Amino acid sequence: MMQAIIVHAAPAVTPRCQQCHMETTICVRCASCKKVLCFECDFSYHRTRPFNTRQCMQLDSSFPLKPTQFLDPSGNIFDKYVHVPLFLPTECSNCRAEGSLKCQAGSKSIAVITRDGRFDLSNTSFCCSKCLCIAEASVEVYLQSGFCPGCPTSLTYLFSTDVLEHWTHLKHQLPGSSERKYLTILEELSKTRGRFDVISRVHFARASREYEYMQHQINTKILSRQVMVCKACGVKPKALHVDGNFKLYRWRLSHIKDRSRSLFNSDIIHSDEDVKSHVELIDSVKPRGKGKDTCGDSAYTASRLESNRKKNMDQTGVLMGSCRHGVILGAANMDRGETYRHVHFLHSKISCEFFCQDVVCKYFSFAEEIGKTKGLERFAQVTQNCTGFLSRWHGKTHSWPCQLLWGGSWKLHAAATTGEEQEQVFSTMSRYSNTTRYMSDASRRDHLSAAIGYWNRRKEENMGKTLVKRLLKARKKVACLEKKFDSLMRERGLVEEDLPKILEHLRTKAINSHDKIASTNWPLAYEKEDLEGLYLQIHRLQYRIETVAVSSKERTKLRKGITKAKKRAEGHILFVNQMIENCQTKLQPKVAEAEIRTWRKVEPTDFTEGIFPWQTEGSVSGRGNFHLIDLWMLLRRFKEEVTETPIEMFRYLDSLSHLKKSLELSLSCSELPLNRGKRFLVCNEIKKIETNLASSLSLFEEYLPPDKHDVFYEFYNSSED
Predict the structure, then answer these.
(1) Could you count the other beta carbons within 10 Å of the beta carbon of residue 385?
(2) Which residue of 425, 481, 571, 608 pairs with 635 in a disulfide if CB–CB is 3.0 to 4.6 A?
(3) Can you spell out the DSSP letters for 629-670?
(4) Is 681 exposed, middle or buried (0-12, 13-18, 19+ CB in 10 A)?
(5) Is the dihedral of CA 179, 184, 189, 190 positive or negative?
(6) What are phi and psi of 412, to 5 degrees?
(7) How far is residue 182's CA from residue 161's CA, in Å, rounded to a whole number?
């Protein structure tokens, strides 16, 4: 392989032009069109193809040629003005003659940036053979030919749409990619090919933002795409998971002199003014409190009642809400951490059946109180029309009563919703922090808005495969959980009719325990509260290591905190077990000691699982009943998923069908150029929807039971009609 490359480095002994087939001592080799040409054919062929990579091949050496450089019969280089290749207008703007225009190079220089680097060319003029009128090409003609200006008032910089599209896919497929380094690559390509190697970063950033916004406008205004809507969920999603990302912050001193305005505005991310007015409205009726808001006996800071503004930051992160399929439905900037007021703003904008959050046990009480407050009665429907849903993974860090009363897998008709979908979104979104933290406010808003739109578009394109995967996973989990459930039921000697009674008994105990949990008169109140708090603290620190900590120094600090918490917990466990043993040996214990005697000793598994003896009346059966019911509930949720997913498949197909019909109704018969262009774009979109419908139908029919196929065929025929 290396030998072949070395042999090709030198020209042939007797080079022959592939255009005129004449032998020549000096030839030009083009790596783009894969041709070897003589000086005459090279001039006639490449004068209108300036973006090709050419080399002058001599007997003992070679050197790159600029797009404006050509060879004379003696092999000397001469310069020639070369224009930017453009589409010819259909008629002359002066005499209206058709087919009379030709392109020629103008007197102004233009830097054109493509994926191969920078090309310095001349502006393009159109010369009419009828009236001999010469007119410079307008900005519209450059745009129609695939070149976006770096500045709308000047044509000194042009960027081809292929380099802008390439950068769009690159920065969203590899979030956090450096724009500066991407331009450095283009500059290196220009340098190695003998061209000028300076590319304006300011012009490129402006052209890239405007290109993405233009695509967004076409998608929403002409193609009627709803960026922030999930087609499988419909108007009212089954679940909405809201969470904040603290990695997407912005420094206060970043680009302080930048006065540019956002192009996307509030199209995707809610405006900061709307969030601020909502927070101030709540503050005017419900003043901010002081102190920590707790979950169980520990401050669980995923979201707080109040939060302080962070030093040197204009935005501390982004609050997002996504459906159970990972489609982002809403977003808002945070200026002082993730508070209940910010969460309530996003919650009030999106109607859902289940509202999922990391500390929904505390937030829901706050939201219900807001709806009952005088002057804010209109927010009562926020909690009346939905159910609180504690995220499954975060629920493991809550107290046992909280898991039982708010746990997502214990909610009827919730299906296999995890309430952790936003964490999956953040696994990608967090990587944008490498660049957004140094951006101006407007650039950051546009960048994240484009990122959210790109993410949702990919989710929509793969929705058919996603729904099939969810169905197959649910079927597999049902079979696996049924085996575990049957084995546990046989071991306990129970039948399924006994489970509702056990469930009701657990609910009663959870409510009673939840009411008593803040009481300081409870025996060993300090030790119990501290043990439960340490359990929550360790899980919270582990979560921060995985999601928030961005440096090894910060992760080391958090790990030290975990070690200290574990040592402290060991001391409390020894003390509590000693007290239990002492109380059990007393002949005439006091009232508090009599209650302690009913407890069993704290075991290491109790601290690992967060279910302590005083929460289950000291019996092992309390914890066993909890795990049994939890397994039963999880099995029921996956059975619901097997039923729910086909409904979402129908809803997804129905959304595509309705979009197709609405686009067909919007087609205009007008022959005006603008209307013809819109009609062409809409027709292309309709064909894509038809292809998506057909592929989704065949995919769904492959994995659904045969009794559902007739319904799908009926739906397909109706959509075709």
Answers:
(1) 12
(2) 481
(3) HHHHHHHHHHHHHHHHHHHHHHHHHHHHHHHHHHHHHH----
(4) middle
(5) positive
(6) -65, 140
(7) 16
How far CA 290 is from CA of 189, 293, 304, 306, in Å, comes to 59, 9, 11, 7
Question: At 471, phi and psi to the nearest 5?
Answer: -65, -45
Q: Residue holding tokens 């952790």?
A: 420
Q: Residue 75, SS3?
A: coil
Residue 620: the pLDDT is: 44
Closest CA to 163 of 119, 216, 225: 119
Assess contact for 386 and 354: CB atoms under 8 A.
yes
Cβ neighbour number for residue 196 with a 10 Å cutoff: 14
CA dist 241 and 417 (Å) reads 10
Which pair of structure tokens corresponds to residue 158?
A: 């042009």
Within 13 Å of residue 55, how many CA atoms lie on the same side as its CB? 17
- Give residue for tokens 């129609």: 144
Question: pLDDT tens for residues 368-422?
Answer: 999 998 888 889 998 988 999 998 877 777 777 788 888 888 999 999 999 989 9
- The end-to-end CA distance of the chain, in Å, is 58
Name, in order, each residue with C-beta under 8 angstroms of 436's C-beta and a sequence gap of 6 or more.
248, 250, 444, 447, 448
Report the length, in residues, of the chain: 721
Q: What is the model's pLDDT at position 572? A: 76
Nearest to 415 by CA among 648, 704, 639: 639
As a whole number of Å, the CA-based R_g of the chain is 34
Q: What is the pLDDT of residue 569?
A: 81
How many other CB atoms sit within 10 Å of the CB of residue 210?
Answer: 18
Q: How far apart are CA 230 and CA 329, in angstroms?
A: 8
Q: Which residues contact 677 (CB under 8 A, 6 or more apart)?
A: none
d(CA 103, CA 126): 5
Name the nearest CA neighbour of 354 among 390, 323, 387.
Answer: 387
Tokens matching residue 573 = 């466990």
Alpha helices in 103-200 (DSSP H): 139-144, 161-173, 179-192
Q: Does pTM top 0.70 for this prediction?
A: yes
CA distance to 17, 44, 55, 73, 211, per residue, from 77 (Å): 19, 15, 12, 10, 38
At position 45, the amino acid (one-letter code) is Y
Q: Mean per-residue pLDDT for 53-80?
A: 89
In the numeric block, which tokens belong to residue 84? 């930017």
Strand partners of residue 250: 315
In terms of Cα–Cα distance, which of 325, 358, 331, 346 is closest to 237? Answer: 325
Backbone angles phi, psi at 112, to 5 degrees: -110, 125
CB neighbour list of residue 81: distance below 8 Å, 6 or more residues apart: 68, 105, 106, 122
715 to 56, 359, 422, 707: CA distances (angstroms): 63, 42, 33, 14
* pLDDT tier, 335 (very low <50, low <70, confident <90, very high otherwise): confident
Total Cβ atoms within 10 A of residue 347 = 24
Please state, as a whole number, how many other Cβ atoms lie within 10 Å of the Cβ of residue 695: 12
294: tokens are: 């707790």
Sheet holding 147-151, edge to edge: 134-136, 117-128, 101-114, 154-160, 147-151
| Residue owning tokens 């059946």 | 353
Task: Check if the beta carbon of residue 317 is closer than 8 Å to that of residue 303.
Answer: no
Q: Give dist(CA 227, CA 217) in Å, integer.
A: 11
> What is the spatial distance between Cα 361 and Cα 448, in angstroms, rounded to a whole number?
30
- Fill in the DSSP letter of residue 365: H
Cβ proximity of 126 and 134 under 8 Å:
yes
Q: Which residues contact 172 (CB under 8 A, 6 or more apart)?
A: 450, 451, 454, 455
Residue 453: C-alpha distances to residues 105, 246, 383, 432 (Å): 40, 20, 28, 14
Cα-flanking dihedrals φ and ψ of residue 230, to 5°? Answer: -95, 125
d(CA 193, CA 65): 8
Chain position carrying tokens 């150029």: 673
Check if the beta carbon of residue 211 is closer than 8 Å to that of residue 161: yes
Contacts (Cβ under 8 Å, ≥6 apart) of 211: 148, 159, 161, 164, 165, 168
